[in-house]
Amino acid sequence: MIYLHLFLGFLKVGCFAFGGAYGAIPLIRDIVLSNGWLSDDKLTYIIAVSESTPGPIMLNVASYVGIEQAGLLGAVTATLAVVLPSFFIILLITASFSHILKTFTVQSVLKGLKPSIIGIICATGLYMIGQRLFYTDAGQAVLSLKTLIITFITAGVMFVPKHLFKKPVSPFIVIILSAILGIIIF
């Protein structure tokens, strides 16, 4: 029965995950937490690890949740479920509807989705920062200076060179820097 739950849960992620993995994180979080597959803290760590390991984030998260819940077959089931919708949609589009992508209506829909996806990604990032920025000590919320330091250094590395030198920093460098800062500071 767990295989069916994993398949249907991650099939939903695959069907409704617009904007790639970052846009899908709220949906993944909702499905994983509502099914009780992982705690919110563990899921946040899995997302962080999935961002810094090779491969698409959604596949990494699906594989990890699947293996946690039902072993190797669970990982295969969850991964297959998250990939199937995209596979069939791309197959259908390339086979018969490539001219539809050029229509005004479809282009308008895609242009309208872009700002929404940016908003979802920003909201997810702020949520994850908020989750780590405060911790509870004796029933009171306490600001985590370590998390604040990592956040400011990472933001500085991302935005300062872009504005000073008009050249963006590679996301790969930011991910590696964040991992190194996490190891050093925590």
Structure description:
With 186 residues, this protein is mainly α. Helix content is 80%, strand content 4%. It has helices at residues 2-16, 20-34, 40-52, 57-96, 104-133, 145-165, 171-185, and strands at residues 134-137, 140-143. It has a two-stranded antiparallel sheet. Helix 1 (2-16) packs across helix 4, helix 2 (20-34) crosses helix 5 (104-133) and helix 6 (145-165) packs antiparallel against helix 7. It is globular.
What is the strand tally?
2
> What is the general shape?
globular
The sequence of SSEs as H and E is HHHHHEEHH
Note the beta-strand portion: under 5%
What is the multimeric organization of the chains shown?
single chain
Gist of the model:
By secondary structure, the chain is mainly alpha-helical. The chain has helices at residues 2-16, 20-34, 40-52, 57-96, 104-133, 145-165, 171-185, and strands at residues 134-137, 140-143. It is built from seven helices and two strands, in the order H-H-H-H-H-E-E-H-H.
Notable traits:
186 residues, mainly alpha, 2 strands, single chain, 7 helices, two-stranded antiparallel ribbon
Spell out the blueprint of helices and strands:
Layout: H1 2-16, H2 20-34, H3 40-52, H4 57-96, H5 104-133, E1 134-137, E2 140-143, H6 145-165, H7 171-185
Antiparallel strand pairs: 1-2
Helix pairs in contact: 1-2, 1-4, 2-5, 3-4, 6-7
